[in-house]
Amino acid sequence: xxxxxxxxxxxTIAIETAILPSLTMAYxxxxxxxxxxxxxxxxxxxxxxxxxxSFIYFNFSKELTQLFYNTTKGAYYxxxxxxxxxxxxxxxxxxxxxxxxxxxxxxxxxxxLTNIIHLILTFILVSIPVINALGIVISISILSSxxxxxxxxxxxxxxxxxxxxxxxxxxxxxxxxxxx
Length: 180
Description:
There is one protein chain. By secondary structure, the chain is an all-alpha fold. 79% of the residues lie in helices and 0% in strands. It has nine helices and no strands. The protein has helices at residues 2-6, 10-28, 32-59, 61-69, 75-88, 91-100, 104-126, 134-158, 165-173. The longest helix has 28 residues, at 32-59. The chain is globular. The N and C termini lie far apart (38 Å). Mean pLDDT is 85; it is low at 176-180.
C-alpha cells in the first residue's frame, strides 16, 4: 500500500526541480517579490494534486488496493496515510526555498535528524506486538506530516518569504475571504 501513496510523489519532485533555478536567481538578485510569488504559486500548484490524490487515497483505498494488488488488505494503511501524504506534498517547495537561500546545511541537519527519528520510531513501533506492521505506516505518517512543518518553520525563520495562504486562496478562487 505504501508504493501506491509514493507513486504520486513525482509531482512534488517536479515542482521542486522546476522552481529551484528561478528561486536561486531571484535570491541572488535580492528580488524578494519574485521569491514570494514563486513560493506562493508553487504552494498553490502543490495544493491541488495533494488535495485530489489525498481525497482518492482516503475515499477509494479499497478500490486502489484491489486494482493494484487484487486484494483489499492494505486499504486501511492507505486511508491512514492519506492526510500525511497531503502535507508531504509541500515539503519540496520548502526544501527548494532553503536550498536557494543558501540554507542547505540546516536542511541536511533536519533531514538527518528526521530520518534518525523515523528509524527509531519504526523500530520501536514494529517491535510492539499489537502494532506490528502498522508501526511502519504510523512512523511514515508522523514524519511525512512533521518534516514539511519543520521545513516551513525554518523557511519562515531563515528567509524573508511572505507565505500568504489567504492571497493564494483569493487568487485561485476569486472570493472575498474575511480577515484572519
